[in-house]
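Please go through the protein record below and see whether the fold suits the sequence. Record follows.
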Amino acid sequence: MEKAESKNQVFISGWVLALTALVGTGLMAGVNWHSQPYIAENERQMLIRSLNTVIPPQSYDNDILHDTTTVNDPGLLGSKQASLVYRARKGSEPIAAALTVIAPNGYSGPITLLVGIDYNGEITGVRVVNHHETPGLGDGIEKRRSNWIDAFTGKSASNPGEAGWKVKRDGGNFDQFTGATITPRAVVGAVHKALIFFSQNRAALFGDDQPGAVVEKSMSVN
């Protein structure tokens, strides 16, 4: 009799646990479903803020999040993966583009950058999106750590010119960090290549002519 009761208790306990797990899973799924729009909106707002740090928001009036084109140039953009270029316009006039660029030769690995370039080929801003550089040394590339990254604003391929697009230790115009030259060297090189890419593909990026091989797909403005 006791064995039968014990078996029943085990059986009931198993069902209770299963029911609890099922209810818990259902609640988690419901919360996740309910929170998805808020998560998506937060991500959208974060992206907008990032874009507005490299392209002044007052300079454009289009929906920059949906005026995009997909590009792929491992040699100049630093990645084998295709990436989006966000295009800023005012009215029908092209204003600037924000490119995602990888500096593959950072001291502690690849450094991801967002580079804003106006239609005339002048940098409107650069920000570090992701990196693994040494705290207190290489992380000076971050805006929150120093103003070093602001030195790119206003520069172009011809300003300071080919020879100037290096750190000072290599004979160029850009500062390096005390005890850390590899990191700024990688960023300077990547930004310079982004300018070269833009100058070679500007018309195609903005749809001013037929896209070349580098521009894979365009998306219309919503």
